[in-house]
Structures are given as structure tokens and as C-alpha cells.
Amino acid sequence: MTLTFKALERAPVDSRHDLDAVLEAVRFNADGLIPAIAQQHDSGEVLMMAWMNREALEETLRTGRVCYWSRSRGTLWRKGESSGQQQHLKSAALDCDGDTLLLQVEQMGPACHTGRRSCFYVLLEQDGARIGSAPLIDPDTLYGKA
């Protein structure tokens, strides 16, 4: 844990801290990424987990439109740029170690590339795995046929 996050442990409620200094202390992994969990701000529904680098995080904070880092494409990925199913930031929080983000978002339509509201639809149970939700939109409609 960095000294910055150690100091924040004892900071009073509503105290203000320099954003650049906090971002400098964020514990990005060896690839320069941090996991970001997106949660629907009003229902608490966990929608997805993706990765952000510092540039994606700064863009998200600056614009209010959630931007991730696409590991497969090696580029910034603005949620909804292909599907139209954007995420708008309501709030962002770092965990106590500065190595995970929680994004409270307003999700427009499905969050998952499968057309489901949430990426977390494969339910693991004692006797097997069960699909817990159906797609809201056919993925071919979202992304066009391959």
C-alpha cells in the first residue's frame, strides 16, 4: 500500500485531496491496468468488469462517459461505441488499497456483449452451472452479423 492510501485511511469525511496525487498512487498492474467494476447506480446491479489504464480513467472522469482499455484491441474502448449501449458515470471510487475501481453508472441498455443486462449471467450452483438471464437484444443486432 502506498503512503498516499495509508494517509487517506485517517482522512476526515468530506476532506478534499489532490486528484493527480491520488491517481499517481493508484496501483496499476504490470500492464498499467486496474480492474473496474461497473454497477448500476440506482439498483446496485453489478453489470460488468473491465480494465482501465490511467488515460481511460482520466477520460472517464473528465467526460462522464465511461471509457475502458481493450486488452484484445490494445486501445481505448468507449463503452457503447459499437453497440450504442453507453455507460454514463455517476461516481467513481477506489478501494482502500488503490488497486480496484468501483464505477456507479447509468447503463443504457445491455452491458454485456451477449445482449444481456449484466455480464454475470452464468450462475454457479452446487450441482452445475445455470444461465440466469436471457439476452435483451440479439448480439447480431448490437454489433452486426460477423
UniProtKB/TrEMBL annotation:
Query: What does the record give as its pathway?
Result: Amino-acid biosynthesis; L-histidine biosynthesis; L-histidine from 5-phospho-alpha-D-ribose 1-diphosphate: step 2/9; Amino-acid biosynthesis; L-histidine biosynthesis; L-histidine from 5-phospho-alpha-D-ribose 1-diphosphate: step 3/9
According to the entry, every stretch annotated as the Phosphoribosyl-AMP cyclohydrolase domain falls at: 48-121
- What SUPFAM superfamilies does the entry give? HisI-like
Which InterPro entries does this one have? PRA-CH, PRib_AMP_CycHydrolase_dom, PRib_AMP_CycHydrolase_sf
Which reaction is recorded as catalysed by this protein? 1-(5-phospho-beta-D-ribosyl)-5'-AMP + H2O = 1-(5-phospho-beta-D-ribosyl)-5-[(5-phospho-beta-D-ribosylamino)methylideneamino]imidazole-4-carboxamide; 1-(5-phospho-beta-D-ribosyl)-ATP + H2O = 1-(5-phospho-beta-D-ribosyl)-5'-AMP + diphosphate + H(+)
The GO biological-process annotations, alphabetized, read as: L-histidine biosynthetic process
Amino acids binding Mg(2+): 95, 97, 99
Q: What EC number(s) does this enzyme carry?
A: 3.5.4.19
HAMAP family from the UniProt entry: HisI (MF_01021)
**In its UniProt entry, what is this protein called?**
Phosphoribosyl-AMP cyclohydrolase
Species for this entry: Halomonas shengliensis
Write the gene name: hisI
